[in-house]
């Protein structure tokens, strides 16, 4: 018998946390309905600089919040250094799967930094990664952030 494959979802920043929680809820609904058709074990890891995005949700225990940081306020450079320094610790505490999916927005201040840094770290360690990013361009700041992520 072969070991069940794993999918690690890294839900980064407010947008990632929102999408990750929807995915987790869908998994729970499927399990509650008795549908046990499973092709992989899916583990969702929530990573954010702000507790505000996670504290009112019924999320699993896989949450990584940065110590001494309370959001980035759409400013990508605000927490860039602490995020960069923390990526190896994030990966140790929230290990990759056989397939890794990184979800974040490009317009915010946290997810637009956390997501690409996690993806780069995983890729540099020869992990299979799929990046999914929403492009948020409702304000000049969001547009600037989006261009910075994609550049």
Distance between the termini: 45 Å
* Number of beta strands: 5
Order of helices and strands: EHEEHEHEH
- Please state the CA-atom Rg, rounded to the nearest Å: 15 Å
Tertiary shape: globular
Structural class label: alpha/beta
Estimated share of beta-strand residues: 15-25%
Instruction: Note the main sheet.
Output: 5 strands, parallel
Enumerate the strands of the largest sheet in spatial order, edge to edge or round the barrel.
Answer: 3-2-1-4-5
Number of helices: 4
Overall pLDDT score: 83
Uncertain spans = none
Report helical residue fraction: 25-40%
Oligomeric state of the chains?
A: single chain
Describe the structure.
By secondary structure, the chain is α/β, with parallel strands linked by helices. The protein contains 4 helices and 5 strands; from the N terminus they run E-H-E-E-H-E-H-E-H. The chain has helices at 13-32, 80-93, 111-124, 140-150, and strands at residues 6-12, 41-48, 63-65, 99-105, 129-134. Strands 3-2-1-4-5 form a 5-stranded parallel sheet. Strand 1 (6-12), helix 1 (13-32) and strand 2 (41-48) form a beta-alpha-beta unit.
Task: Please give a handful of descriptors for the protein shown.
151 residues, alpha/beta
Summarize the structure.
The chain has 151 residues and is an alpha/beta fold.
